[in-house]
Design brief:
Mean pLDDT: 91
CATH architecture of one domain: 2-Layer Sandwich
Number of strands: 30
CATH topology of one domain: GMP Synthetase, Chain A, domain 3
Shape: globular
Strand order of the largest sheet: 12-11-8-6-7-14-15-23
CATH superfamily of one domain: ANL, C-terminal domain
Bound molecules: 5'-O-[(S)-ethoxy(hydroxy)phosphoryl]adenosine
Length: about 650
């Protein structure tokens, strides 16, 4: 919860000195006109034509936005298009058939390049096979694959025949897969025998098999043989071998199905750490326009670039910015199967160097790890090809922001801190890299046409410097259309809180807290449910964390609330340090100083606990809720979803120590 009327404003804004866009960047950028904000504002919603124009339409749309059934908005209605045709076929026609579409870097050092022509052949053969297996338009196909080329190929094959895909992150459990397939009534599954993890063969098919056993309906399954002799498998009833199917349908093509702009392109279950996963529905025209536009305007992607988003396609970032955005623009997208520290901690920089990557996009959790490992790893390589860096997924405080720009970007590239969500589909808050000043620690203003408002409990906009709820007051093309679970859930989850249906005033509520400055720049403070109440003050744990990460020697931190007698809350801070910072007492003192300076003495943690690692989900998010349970001595439940479950016992032991 966020306080009204000034509570929380008595501390300085934690942003670093503003930096102008570098002139060498501006000279070549896709979007350079500062008037773009005004022109979008004056010409709303038709301004979004500019995004739709980046695509090829089979039939032009009649209306940009239909808002008579809010909050169920409809974009580009009357228009028809096919997403796979936009991401593949049209680049062949444009004479770019031998241009690299995907550069895949495997875990064992394998490299594969798929040209647009290769992608065309592969998606057509798989699309033919899916049809033969019985997949019809609008059937939901579940894809449970790791970061191998077959993942984007099968997604695009589904898009080609108008079958919405439902990608489930490969690291999720059998139960999680079953829940998602059941909720989506999905009768088709694309998976693989297994994959390599730190050199070992890891069985994926057994998880898929277990999920199928839990389902009441039959599932036709296609299995990609990734491991060969390293992990032999047998195919049972209703199971088909991917490569055999491709062989059977070699050279076959399927006409791309012309979809209505508002037809579903895919379904994505959000990886919530509490409650049931939510099936977020994205449609074809609005989503694809918005991701293409933001890849163009925010990430400055050009057709001749080699572009790399180091995320997993199993989550929204990978859908939008490994697959759909870059491929819609006809660029080369790098796809990396492995981890950043295997075989060594310079793995990513070796890939950037060798591929001469132009644009690199990753998450703060990775950036903090790079910082912790030290600059010697990027220093081993020539990173001068990099033109722009991006960050997404969590708040990034000034210290890692500056480190990223300095040691990866060579000190003279723009860094975009992009705020968005599974539900927004594409970036909604960021600086435009050739137009806006960057402020380390602030994501930026709402993009042109995106009406972001930070409001208090009553929905009134807060003053600059105050914190409030991050809401969006106008619809945007990439927005989720509904939840697969139902329209009512969609309304109650995102709209009821701040909308006034009687006045036809609709406000999307993001679930995040943020602060806005005089220039309209947002500093995202984190999820509202991560906000804690201490001594009558409501604090964002993220805000305390930002103060802690700014301390030299701190690699990562998580701050949680612990109930104390009588009925108050204490702050517990978990901290991991960089190599070389062994004097915990010195770091502890510096942390207390930093928090007192940035927020005030009341935000001082009761305990600061040092741990070699923080518990994380497989997608790299810190499990704050678990740390909260540990701090409160509560039952931890199932910790198997963690990437590093072993750390839990170590932390518990430390808690009990004094
Ligand atoms: C957080 C990932 C601060 C936020 C694209 C949001 C961020 C949630 C940022 C969505 C950012 C994302 N600064 N926080 N630049 N980007 N977030 O659905 O809390 O996996 O609500 O989408 O990540 O996570 P999701």
């Amino acid at each position: 919860m966020v306080e009204r009327n000034g509570r929380g404003r008595d501390h300085p804004v934690l942003t670093g000195a503003p930096r102008s866009p570098p002139s060498a960047f501006v000279e070549q950028a896709n979007v350079t006109d500062p008037e773009i904000y005004e022109s979008f504002a004056e010409n709303w919603p038709e301004c979004w034509d500019r995004a739709a124009e980046l695509l090829s339409w089979d039939r032009s749309y009649e209306t940009v936005l239909e808002d008579d059934d809010a909050p169920f908005y409809r974009w580009f209605t009357g228009g028809k298009l096919n997403a796979a045709e936009n991401c593949v076929d049209r680049h062949l026609e444009a004479g770019r058939k031998n241009h690299a579409a995907i550069r895949w870097e495997g875990k064992r050092g394998e490299r594969e390049v798929y040209t647009y022509r290769d992608l065309y052949v592969a998606t057509n053969e798989v699309a033919t096979a899916l049809r033969e297996l019985g997949v019809e338009e609008d059937d939901v196909v579940t894809i449970y694959l790791p970061m191998i080329p077959e993942l984007p190929i099968t997604m695009l094959a589904c898009a080609r025949i108008g079958a919405p895909h439902n990608v489930v992150f490969a690291g999720l459990s059998a139960d999680a897969l079953a829940t998602r397939m059941d909720a989506a009534d999905s009768e088709y599954l694309l998976t693989c025998d297994g994959y390599y993890r730190r050199g070992n063969a890891f069985n994926q098919k057994s998880k898929a098999d277990n999920a199928r056993l839990k389902l009441e309906h039959d599932v036709r399954t296609v299995v990609v043989d990734r491991l060969g002799e390293d992990l032999p498998h047998v195919l049972g009833d209703d199971e088909y071998d991917y490569h055999e199917l491709r062989e059977t349908f070699t050279g076959e093509t399927v006409e791309p199905v012309s979809r209505d702009a508002e037809d579903m392109l895919f379904l994505m279950y959000t990886s919530g750490t509490t409650g049931e996963p939510k099936g977020v529905v994205h449609t074809t025209g609005g989503y694809l326009s918005h991701v293409a536009w933001t890849a163009h305007a925010v990430l400055d992607v050009k057709p001749d670039d080699t572009y790399w988003c180091a995320a997993d396609i199993g989550w929204i970032t990978g859908h939008s910015y490994i697959v759909y955005g870059p491929l819609a623009l006809g660029t080369t997208t790098v796809m990396y199967e492995g981890t950043p520290d295997y075989p060594d901690r310079d793995r990513l920089w070796e890939i950037v160097d060798r591929n001469a990557v132009d644009v690199f996009y990753t998450a703060p959790t990775a950036i903090r790890a790079f910082m912790k490992w030290g600059e010697e790893y990027p220093n081993r390589h020539d990173l001068s090809s990099l033109r722009l860096l991006g960050s997404v997924g969590e708040p990034i405080s000034p210290r890692p922001w500056n480190w990223y720009r300095e040691h990866i970007g060579g000190g003279d590239v723009p860094v975009v801190d992009t705020w968005w969500q599974t539900e927004t589909g594409a970036v909604t808050v960021s600086t435009l890299p050739a137009v806006d000043e960057m402020k380390p620690g602030a994501a930026g203003p709402g993009l042109p046409g995106i009406d972001v408002r930070v409001v208090d409990d009553a929905g009134e906009e807060v003053e600059p410097g105050e914190s409030g709820y991050l809401t969006i007051a106008r619809p945007w093309p990439g927005m989720a259309r509904t939840l697969y679970d139902g329209d009512e859930q969609f309304r109650s989850e995102y709209w009821d809180r701040f909308s006034d249906p009687d006045a036809d005033d609709w406000r999307y509520f993001s679930g995040d807290a943020a602060r806005i400055d005089e220039d309209g720049y947002l500093t995202v403070l984190g999820r509202v449910d991560d906000v804690i109440n201490v001594s009558g003050r409501r604090l964002s744990t993220m805000e305390i964390e930002s103060a802690i990460t700014d301390v030299p020697g701190v690699a990562e931190t998580a701050v949680v609330g612990r109930s104390s007698e009588p009925g108050g809350t204490e702050i517990y801070a978990y901290v991991s340090t960089e190599g070389g910072y062994d004097d915990e007492n010195a770091v502890r003192e510096a942390i207390v100083d930093s928090i007192e300076t940035a927020i005030g003495p009341f935000a001082r943690p009761t305990r600061i606990l040092f741990t070699p690692e923080l518990p994380k989900t497989r997608s790299g998010k810190i499990m704050r809720r678990l740390l909260e349970n540990i701090s409160n001595g509560e039952d931890l439940g199932d910790t198997s979803a963690l990437r590093n479950p072993e750390i839990v016992g170590e932390i518990q032991a430390e808690i009990l120590e004094d």
